[in-house]
Design a protein that fits this description.
It is built from five helices and no strands. By secondary structure, the protein is mainly alpha-helical.
Length: 78
C-alpha cells in the first residue's frame, strides 16, 4: 500500500518533467533540472509545471512555410 502511494506521489512530483520531455524542445532539460532541484517546494513545482505546459503550447512553423516565405522574399528582390 505504501509503495503504491509513494509511486503515485513520485509520478505527480515528476509530472512537469514528463510533460517537458514530450514537448521535445531544448528547454526540456532545464525544466527537468528545475523540477528535480526545486520541485520539492510548492512554488518550484508550480513554476516548472507552467513552464512545461508553455513548452507544449508553443508551435513551430512547418518547414514548408519557412521555405515558401524565403521563395516569396527572393522573388520580390529580383
Amino acid at each position: 500500500m505504501w509503495a503504491i502511494m509513494a509511486l503515485i506521489l513520485l509520478l505527480i512530483y515528476l509530472l512537469p518533467s514528463f510533460i517537458a520531455v514530450t514537448s521535445k524542445k531544448r528547454e526540456a532539460l532545464a525544466v527537468i533540472l528545475l523540477n528535480v532541484l526545486l520541485g520539492w517546494t510548492i512554488l518550484g513545482w508550480i513554476v516548472t509545471l507552467i513552464w512545461a505546459l508553455m513548452l507544449c503550447a508553443e508551435k513551430e512553423p512547418p518547414a514548408e512555410t519557412e521555405r515558401n516565405i524565403k521563395v516569396v522574399i527572393t522573388k520580390r528582390e529580383e
